[in-house]
Amino acid sequence: MPCWPGTRIQRCLVHVQRNTKTDLTLKPRLQAGKELKRLSDQLTRVHTIEEAVRWGEALNAWHERWKTLIDERTMAKDDPANPKASHQSWWWTHQELRRCYRRPEHLFQDRQLFAFPEPELTAGGPVERTTNRLEGGVNPPIKRTLLQHHGLPESHMGRACERHCYTKTDNPDPASLIRDEHQQPQPAPKRETRQEQDEPEHYGTAINWNEFHTPVRYPNTTL
Fold this sequence. Notes:
The chain is mostly helical and 223 residues long.
């Protein structure tokens, strides 16, 4: 369960743009992709509710113009050489283009694309549209922590990140996290030797000095 289920979410507009560029590339081949990329590039130019509404209307107009294209399907029997045909009976012909439209559409409908200019949120001060300050100020130390301790198990990595974030809170008290079992660790279990297990001793892999040196001289049988 989330800690704050009623908290409004503002998706980073820069990341939405990057996702679009990843799917469409910087130079889309189809005219529909070129228009959608230009529309995505305008995301960071939105600053007011009126501009957000106009952007949403432009996205809807794009869909009305190209909905037949993004709804096209390719049947596996028509393209048997495609790797998808081995496990799918059909797929969207322009899957990347369709995904680039569906992503901002869902965010817009969920009010996560342009939450930052809403009056009830800006009443307490400006709301960030991107995660630039987070990526530049908070995340790098966490990434360095994981880089410096890259051998930790995944569960320990999570604890290391939690500890770093805790030290950045108001009046942190790291000593309060130490419990009694941390101060009195349990002794490691004793390993049984082969003699204790009544097993025959195997040949060793080390060199025994006595195998090459004896306390008496070798008999000299040379004439």
